């Protein structure tokens, strides 16, 4: 029986589709949904000028925090409209590691995430975060494709 579902979001179309499916499952199962946005500080550190340009680090963090708040807020609005119990949170670090840590530590029964996020790389396989979570999670993982079959 599903009691707690984790939704991983990065604000991408794929993650919002995943959130819609998680909300549908959560509503039917009577489960509580938790959405998380992970600020990928490792990816930020690889951007040109990140370490040497004054203020860029703080500005990029502000932008990512804002992006996360918007994504989590959108999922929250959908949860409220659907009548599904919902909580939200953010984390900083490597998204795959942080999601796996949450799966291990918080007692989730299912994690739902999009196959490809905001990396901008359409791969033949899963996105790197989704692939890492699928390979290493100790709970079931539902990976939602970037597009519906009829949209391809």
List the helices and strands and how they pair.
Layout: E1 4-9, H1 13-29, E2 32-39, H2 41-45, H3 56-82, E3 86-92, H4 95-105, E4 110-114, H5 128-136, E5 141-144
Parallel strand pairs: 1-2, 1-4, 2-3, 4-5
Helix pairs in contact: 1-3, 4-5
Structure description:
The protein is 45% helix and 20% strand. It has 152 residues and is of the alpha/beta class. The protein has a domain at 37-94. The chain has a five-stranded parallel beta sheet, sandwiched between helices. Helix 1 (13-29) runs parallel beside helix 3 (56-82) and helix 4 runs parallel beside helix 5 (128-136). The radius of gyration is 15 Å and the shape is globular. The model is unreliable at 120-126 (pLDDT under 50).
Largest pleated sheet = 5 strands, parallel
Unreliable stretches (pLDDT < 50, length at least 5) are 120-126
SS strand fraction: 15-25%
Structural category: alpha/beta
Annotation, overall tally of beta strands: 5
**Overall pLDDT:** 86
Q: Counting H and I runs of at least 4 residues, what is the number of helices?
A: 5
Strand sequence of the main sheet, in spatial order? 3-2-1-4-5
How many whole angstroms does the radius of gyration measure? 15 Å
Euclidean distance between termini CA atoms = 33 Å
Q: Give the overall form.
A: globular
């Amino acid at each position: 029986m599903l009691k707690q579902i984790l939704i991983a979001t990065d604000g991408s179309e794929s993650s919002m589709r995943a959130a819609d499916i998680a909300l549908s499952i959560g509503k039917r199962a009577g489960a509580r949904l938790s959405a998380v946005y992970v600020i990928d500080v490792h990816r930020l550190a690889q951007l040109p000028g990140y370490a040497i340009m004054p203020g860029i680090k703080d500005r990029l963090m502000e932008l990512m925090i804002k992006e996360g708040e918007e994504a989590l807020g959108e999922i929250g609005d959908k949860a409220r409209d659907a009548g599904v119990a919902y909580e939200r949170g953010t984390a900083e670090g490597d998204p795959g590691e942080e999601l796996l840590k949450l799966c291990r530590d918080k007692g989730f029964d299912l994690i739902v995430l999009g196959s490809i996020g905001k990396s901008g790389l359409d791969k033949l396989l899963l996105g790197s975060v989704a692939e890492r979570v699928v390979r290493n999670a100790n709970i079931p993982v539902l990976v939602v494709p970037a597009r519906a079959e009829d949209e391809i």
